[in-house]
Design goal:
This protein is α/β, with parallel strands linked by helices and 294 residues long. It contains twelve helices and eight strands. Helix 1 runs parallel beside helix 2, helix 2 runs parallel beside helix 3 and helix 10 runs antiparallel to helix 12.
Length: 294
């Protein structure tokens, strides 16, 4: 059974002006997401600036997300690290906080071998009981989980249940799906490739766009899953110009700026990320208007 089907929001971590985490704003944003159709809250991932949170903040953000969601939708916590021991600690803490699953990015910087990835993920899986979604985003980590590796992990670890594919490589996703014999939930990690990955057996997306358009992304995925593939494809194409602007600089810089333009609470970013460049502000604002959000 899937952790979730549909649109999971890779939710931002709102900050106060002093760069402390704004938990009241997080509560508001989670309520907004659930009220507008989001199917899962994915907390402290890439978009949630998990890499610049302290261990204490990381744990508290997860605890608060579980508390604020109140069981209305699943909560999945980003618990990856380039240190296996740290990833185990984060995953165990998240499980104790009551999450429905964990999202574990490949170990960055180390450039682990495929055998290293198998040992890394297997060690984490053995330490927890909740389901795990593998997160493959080589452009950020310098590490790519190959299809055979995914298949071996799924075969030998019953709680490794999903893959967030942000490779941008459709052929690799197809290869992966041919090897897992239907035992893997595939989630798009790229907002511009949701429908293509649904077409090869995907069940949803973990979305940046959902921060500002949760109902739209939910409806796009569910239209496809309900059989209206034409509508889903049209929605994917309509959203493409805005999606491009949401990635005109490294995520989550543009989406936090977009939220501010829409009067939503996101706050500043922690270094080394900085605010959106001036030359990108007006083009982003124009796309928000064209999309009907402004």
């Amino acid at each position: 059974m899937s952790l979730f089907k549909g649109a999971g929001v890779a939710i931002v971590t709102p900050m106060k002006e002093d760069l402390s985490v704004d938990y009241d704003a997080l509560r508001e944003n989670i309520d907004y997401q659930i009220d507008n159709g989001t199917d899962c809250i994915v907390i402290v991932g890439t978009t949630g600036e998990g890499s610049t949170l302290s261990m204490e903040e990381h744990k508290k953000a997860i605890e608060c997300a579980v508390k604020f969601a109140k069981g209305r939708v699943p909560v999945v916590a980003g618990t990856g690290s380039n240190c296996t021991e740290t990833a185990v600690e984060l995953s165990v803490d998240a499980q104790e906080s009551g999450v429905d699953g964990v999202l574990v990015v490949t170990p960055y910087y180390n450039k682990a071998t495929q055998q290293g990835l198998i040992k890394h993920y297997s060690t984490i899986a053995e330490a927890i009981k909740v389901p795990m979604i593998l997160y493959n985003v080589p452009s950020r980590t310098g590490c790519n989980i190959m299809p055979q590796t995914v298949a071996e992990l799924v075969k030998n670890n019953s709680n490794i249940r999903g893959l967030k594919d942000a490779t941008g490589n459709i052929e690799q996703a197809v290869h992966t799906m041919t090897l897992v014999d239907g035992n893997l939930d595939l989630y798009s990690g790229n907002d511009d490739q949701v429908v293509p990955l649904l077409s090869i057996g995907g069940v949803g997306v973990i979305s940046v766009l959902s921060n500002i358009a949760p109902r739209y992304v939910h409806d796009m995925v569910m239209s496809y899953l309900d059989g209206d593939t034409t509508k889903a494809a049209q929605m994917q194409l309509k959203a493409y110009p805005l999606i491009k602007k949401l990635f005109c600089e490294v995520n989550p810089i543009p989406v936090k700026a977009a939220m501010q333009m829409l009067g939503m609470k996101s706050g500043p970013l922690r270094l080394p990320l900085t605010q959106l460049s001036a030359q990108n502000e007006e083009p982003l604002r124009e796309e928000l208007k064209k999309f009907g959000l402004l």
